[in-house]
Amino acid sequence: MEKMNAWLRISIEDLGLSNRHTDCSFIIQTATERRVFLCHKLIFCCASEAFDRMLYGDFKESTTGEVMLKDVEPDIFEKFRGYLYGYQSEKLEDYGTDTLIKLCVFGNKFLVESIKEDCVKEMTNRRCRLGMSDLMLLFQCAHTLNIKSITKRVVSKISPFLKEPFNQSVVFDFDREVFKSYIETIDMKLLEADRFILIETYLKHNGLDTPSAAVAAPTAIDAIEEEIQENNREYISQLLGLIKFRRFTPKQFYEGPGKSSLLTTQQKYEHLYTIANECARAKDVVKSTSVETLATASLISELTSFPYYRAAHCHCRSTHFPFSADLSE
């Protein structure tokens, strides 16, 4: 049986390499390149139901034998095609994280579960060390595929080093939902002042921080523009809703949200009032209770949640990201 399996795999691989008996073609069209890949319908329909319906169903592709794809790079499709003609997951070990993610996303789109699972396994279990850029790409991929286990593992690897938000520039190219998920995930792993900086910088980077988009009434002259502005305002509101302003020190609030156009004057006053109450409560706790009593009563955790304590102690660790982080542990 093993000999038969080995023979069958080699035969199918040879079939893909020689292009003998091909009966369909995939045309990969990008802005700068156009490539045609000769393929076999049977191989692709066995890979997923999506290809089966496309190549043997009531669609134009089943009649013409030509499939036009514009949302995949030719190099990625070539690797995808090579995987289908043999299912050798070992080949994935030679690909970079960016390539694995693209293969995973493409396979997920066309319901090819095998390549999706093999790519996820390779990305999470490989023994190599992933740099910050690769980790962020992996976070984006995990969010797209709704794989929460990978999301948590990525954040667990970078959380000890989340000190300088501007070192996370790769997140500024995330789409809206991925960025929002990232801000939610790093809650309590980064100072609120730094999370706010990330949000404000992301909005500026993507042209969403205009006063009209943030706080003013819509001034668009047509319904489409007005809808866009409304969507922007709603998104900004959702992001700001993730920030716990009571964790700010007065100075942090003044230098960040206090000077930002993302908040109205009324909102700033309300948040400052909350911060003042938090600081007053923290001082009352310190005055009325000794450190020894706090420790005995297990109240140290409450004290450390106050903003002035966090500001004084949260930056005692390294403020630099490592060049890489091991995801496999």
Structural descriptors:
single chain; 329 residues; mainly alpha; 3-stranded mixed β-sheet; 3 strands; 59% helix; elongated
What's the arrangement of secondary structure elements?
Elements: H1 2-18, E1 24-29, E2 34-39, H2 41-47, H3 49-56, H4 60-64, E3 66-69, H5 74-84, H6 97-109, H7 113-125, H8 132-145, H9 148-158, H10 176-185, H11 192-205, H12 211-214, H13 223-240, H14 250-255, H15 265-288, H16 291-296, H17 300-304, H18 307-313
Parallel strand pairs: 1-3
Antiparallel strand pairs: 1-2
Helix pairs in contact: 2-3, 5-6, 6-7, 6-8, 8-9
Concise summary:
The protein is mostly helical and 329 residues long. Helices cover 59% and strands 5% of the residues.
Give your account of this protein's structure.
With 329 residues, the chain is mainly α. Helix content is 59%, strand content 5%. The protein has helices at residues 2-18, 41-47, 49-56, 60-64, 74-84, 97-109, 113-125, 132-145, 148-158, 176-185, 192-205, 211-214, 223-240, 250-255, 265-288, 291-296, 300-304, 307-313; strands spanning 24-29, 34-39, 66-69. A hairpin with a 4-residue loop joins strand 1 and strand 2 (34-39). Helix 5 packs across helix 6, helix 6 (97-109) packs antiparallel against helix 7 and helix 6 (97-109) packs parallel to helix 8 (132-145). The two termini are 37 Å apart. Residues 211-216, 299-304 and 308-329 have low confidence and may be disordered.
